[in-house]
């Protein structure tokens, strides 16, 4: 693993336009379960599969059941940023990282200090009344009962992209631009199985593609550096030497 870290360190030292693309595996070391691992949500038993519960149709038809699952499994508000989140924030502060493109909805990148975060699938920290669009934070959602209602009587919906819903066009455009302009792309903690998010890698035309994931991905053969280890474990060994004051 030391040799892998040395190669990654060389890339980070050499280039200033680095973009990070991450998935659930970035947050598992903060105690947030992913979807596809042995202990992930897809391998736990519910009345409905998680991918069914987390669909637009299910939300509209079985809103109460959706929120029972959502509060129980999606609102990990006590989770703290781990070494990967913190190191990425350091890299951005040092002028090495141009942005974080994330599939996660937990807000841990921002909690660690990252500024340019493109949340492809939204955030549990933003919730809006479907009737009057009033904002509610994640704490309100966690401590509400049944179907959370706005003071106007409307149902409050998390600003997360459910199955059957499209990604935000502005977020996608920002992600494409950031990826296309990057010299190095580090992909971490994702199986690259969820589309259209995984398709954003096609826009990378830079010098080096780095993949850090415990399991195999469809892009492994295209990687200039492949590290099959927990991403926090790798990032904790890196040093950030910035070129900007």
UniProtKB/TrEMBL annotation:
Q: Which residues bind Zn(2+)?
A: 129, 132, 150, 152
Recorded family membership: Belongs to the sirtuin family. Class U subfamily.
Q: Which residues form the Deacetylase sirtuin-type domain?
A: 1-245
Q: Report which superkingdom the organism of origin falls in.
A: Bacteria
Name used for this protein in its record: NAD-dependent protein deacetylase
Question: Residues in the active site?
Answer: 121 (proton acceptor)
Q: Where does NAD(+) bind?
A: 24, 28, 35-36, 103, 105-106, 121, 190-191, 213, 215, 231
Keyword Protein transport included in the entry's annotation: no
State its cofactor. Zn(2+)
Q: What is the documented function of this protein?
A: NAD-dependent protein deacetylase which modulates the activities of several enzymes which are inactive in their acetylated form.
Give the GO cellular component terms, alphabetically.
cytoplasm
Name the major location: cytoplasm
Q: What is the lineage of its organism?
A: Bacteria, Bacillati, Bacillota, Clostridia, Lachnospirales
Query: By its UniProt entry, which InterPro entries does this protein fall under?
Result: DHS-like_NAD/FAD-binding_dom, NAD-dep_sirtuin_deacylases, Sirtuin, Sirtuin_cat_small_dom_sf, Sirtuin_class_U, Ssirtuin_cat_dom
Keyword list (alphabetical) reads: Cytoplasm, Metal-binding, NAD, Transferase, Zinc
Q: How is the cofactor bound?
A: Binds 1 zinc ion per subunit.
Q: Which PANTHER family match?
A: NAD-DEPENDENT PROTEIN DEACYLASE, NAD-DEPENDENT PROTEIN DEACYLASE SIRTUIN-5, MITOCHONDRIAL-RELATED
GO MF annotation list: histone deacetylase activity, NAD-dependent; NAD+ binding; zinc ion binding
Catalytic activity line of the entry: N(6)-acetyl-L-lysyl-[protein] + NAD(+) + H2O = 2''-O-acetyl-ADP-D-ribose + nicotinamide + L-lysyl-[protein]
Residues annotated to bind nicotinamide: 35, 105-106
EC no. given is: 2.3.1.286
Origin organism is Blautia faecicola
Its subcellular locations are:
Cytoplasm
